[in-house]
Amino acid sequence: MSTRPSPRGVRLTDVGFGAAQLGNLGRVTTEDEAAGAVEEAWRRGIRYFDTAPHYGLGLSERRLGAALAARPRDEYVISTKVGRLLQPNEPPHGTDDGFVVPATHRRVFDFSRDAILRSVDESLARLGLDRVDILYLHDPDHEWEAASTTGVDTLIELRDQGVTRAIGAGMNQSAMLARFVRECDVDVVMLAGRYTLLEQGAAEDLLPAALDRGVAVVGAAVYNSGLLSADRPAAGLTYDYLPAPESLIERVTRIAEVCERHGVRLPEAAVQFPLRHPATASVVVGMRTADQVDSTLDRLAARIPVALWDDLRATGLLIADDAIDTVAP
Q1: Annotation says 76 is catalytic
Q2: Half-sphere exposure of residue 149, counting CA atoms within 13 Å on the CB side?
Q3: Which residues lie closer than 8 Å to 304 by C-beta, 6 or more apart?
Q4: Would the keyword Oxidoreductase be found if you checked this record's keyword annotation (predicted)?
Q5: 326, part of any domain
Q6: Which end of the chain is more exposed for a tag (fewer CB within 10 A), N or C?
Q7: Is residue 284 over pLDDT 50?
Q8: Rounded to an integer, what distance in angstroms lies between the CA atom of residue 13 and that of residue 281?
């Protein structure tokens, strides 16, 4: 698989392995499924792996670290996140919200220096590593002041110490990420769901800023949490983890119809679209099993004619973007 350069010498494969499912997101992932998914990702050429303490209260980090333990450390890139500190629940309270794990801990948003240093130490212990390649501030939507000052300053300190190679933020919105890019010394940002085949709002703020400042963008949630994951949208699909509104289902149906006219499946276009923009360094896709790894990479390899993108723009289903037009075939 090809790689793309990003700041600080970090090279990311076109597709990154999103490890939220290794934390039992939504349902249980077995140990064999988790290990098999990472094994297949490695076999197929994926060398970028993304996780976070949030994913299964540390379970994702532990599983990912174990699965990569025998791999040469300099041959892969790993990112994790800070800002959601895990505090013990005594005693545990039922099952964790969103992840099928015992609620042994609760998450506390904290972008202070002490909290970030503690979070990184705990992540390194779970991963079995002495360094990571990228550290992201995790969803600081309501914490701009702390995250953009103490948070970034602490990450810079860790970058200077060699604990990480690159720093940034990961969010579900583009406006604040654009502020991080314009106002802070960040190297890479992760954008979830806001530059996809369905919506391209980030083309108005984040992506131009990233190109201007030389900051890499990692695209996540390229299926908009499920709405673009099937050939045709069906009842029960979600958008941003909630039931998809009818208006969006109708729009996705129209996009799918254009894809079909060009012999392309909707998920194939969804995986490949963000990579057309020169600011995008990688797309991270959640993968639970080896079969999901294979289907993702098969979608990446599918041939998509330029005429498809032209038709989507002509029908108003895709915005025109001069940055893409100058570099993408």
Answers
A1: no
A2: 5
A3: 262, 264, 268, 269, 272
A4: yes
A5: no
A6: C
A7: yes
A8: 8
Structure tokens at 37: 């998914």
Q: Which two tokens stand for residue 228?
A: 């673009």
Q: Is residue 323 part of a domain?
A: no
DSSP output for 191-219: EESSSSSS--GGGGTHHHHHHHHT-EEEE
pLDDT digits (tens, 9 = 90+) for 230-239: 999 887 888 8
Band the pLDDT of 325: cuts 50, 70, 90: low
Q: Which among 104, 9, 123 has a CA at the least distance from the CA of 65?
A: 123
List, in sequence order, every residue forming a beta bridge with 317; answer none if it has no partner. Answer: none
Measure the CA–CA gap between 150 and 158, rounded to whole angstroms. 12
Q: What is the CATH number of the domain that holds 76?
A: 3.20.20.100
pLDDT tier, 282 (very low <50, low <70, confident <90, very high otherwise) = very high
- Residue type for 107, please? R
Give the β-pairing of 84-88 and 105-109. antiparallel
- Measured CA distances, 303 to 59, 271, 308, 328 (Å): 36, 12, 11, 14
Specify if 317 maps to a domain: no
Q: Which of 48, 55, 136, 239 is catalytic?
A: 55
Residue 251 lies in a domain: no
Contacts of residue 246, defined as CB under 8 A and 6 or more positions apart, other chains included, come to: none
Residue range 27-43: average pLDDT? 98
Q: List the domain range (segments joined by +) for residue 287.
A: 3-230+267-306
